[in-house]
Every structure is written in C-alpha cells, then in structure tokens.
Specification:
The protein has 159 residues and is an alpha+beta fold. It has helices at 2-10, 20-29, 83-88, 109-118, 120-154, and strands spanning 31-35, 40-42, 50-56, 59-65, 68-75, 80-81, 95-98, 102-108. The strands form 2 sheets. The protein has a 4-stranded antiparallel β-sheet with strand order 1-8-3-6. A 4-stranded antiparallel β-sheet has the order 2-7-4-5, with no helix packed on it. The longest helix is centred in the last third of the chain and has 35 residues, at 120-154.
C-alpha cells in the first residue's frame, strides 16, 4: 500500500522533484481520511491547515453565493486540494464534497514543519510546487473571467 501511495504522490505536480526519502516521510505521516458520498472533506470559510491527496473516489469543489452552491470543478484520484490554505493561512475558499465514497491522504502543516526541520531544500521544493500549482489555477481563472467579460460585452447593446 505504501508503494502505491508513494507512486501516487510522485505523479502529482505538488510533489514533483522530491526524493523517495521525502515522499516516504510524508506518506508515513499522512492520515487517511474517508468521506461518504454527500459529506465534506472541508467547508468554505473553515480554517484549514492541510492539503489532501485524493486517493479514491471523486469530489466536487463548491462555492456558495447568496445561499446557492455552485460547482466549480470535479477532482479525481491523483488530484489534490487545500494547498492554498497552507500558503496563505486563510480560510478555505471553497467546500470539497464527495460525489462518491472517497479516501484522501491528509498532509498537514505540522508534517511540512517536520520536513522543514529535517530537509530545508525539500521543504522549499514543496512550497515552490504549491506556488506553481496555485499560479496555474489563477491563470486558468483569469482566462475564464476574461472570456466571460468579453462575451458579456459582446452581448451588450451598442451605444
């Protein structure tokens, strides 16, 4: 099981470039979290101090607006979520709900702090990778926002 989990971490951009020793270190400490269909890994507005690696199942990323939940994305095994809270220490910006029974491995800020004390360069690599992942998502969101604004402007009556 541990070998499969290490392989899962190796396949993910957030853990890219890490040594096998570091991956073992993180996998050994990660807590397995099981969530039933319809239940939540995390809720928008909560304070989080961990990221999750989806091992089995599927989840949806949900954002609430005026009392209505809107799906932003769906994630599959091999995807991760929650890393933004490890970077900015802010509250969760969306909810993560299981759309089928799901299992994820939770890597906490405490685990990363232990890695910091053990191997600063590997700690820095994870943080650079998380920054890159968040940046990729921001680029995608910027592109979608731009397209939505252009489409709205094109459908406006001309003055």
């Amino acid at each position: 099981m541990e070998e499969q989990r290490i392989a899962l971490f190796q396949s993910m951009p957030v853990f890219g470039g890490l040594t096998d020793e570091t991956l073992e270190f993180l996998v050994d400490r990660a807590r397995e979290v099981f969530v039933h269909t319809g239940d939540y890994f995390a809720r928008e507005g909560e304070h989080g101090c961990s990221l999750f690696v989806l091992e089995q199942g599927r989840v949806q990323i949900i954002k609430a607006w005026k009392g209505v939940d809107y799906e932003l994305n769906r994630l599959n095994p091999g995807d991760c979520f929650g890393e933004m809270e490890l970077i900015d220490h802010g509250p969760r910006c969306a909810s993560i709900r299981a759309i089928e029974d799901s299992t994820a491995l939770e890597v906490t800020a405490v685990h990363l702090h232990e890695l910091y004390r053990k191997d600063l360069s590997q700690f820095a690599m994870i943080h650079m990778n998380m920054g890159r992942e968040v940046s990729r998502r921001l680029r995608k969101a910027d592109d979608e926002l731009f397209r939505a604004k252009v489409e709205a402007a094109l459908h406006q009556p001309m003055p």
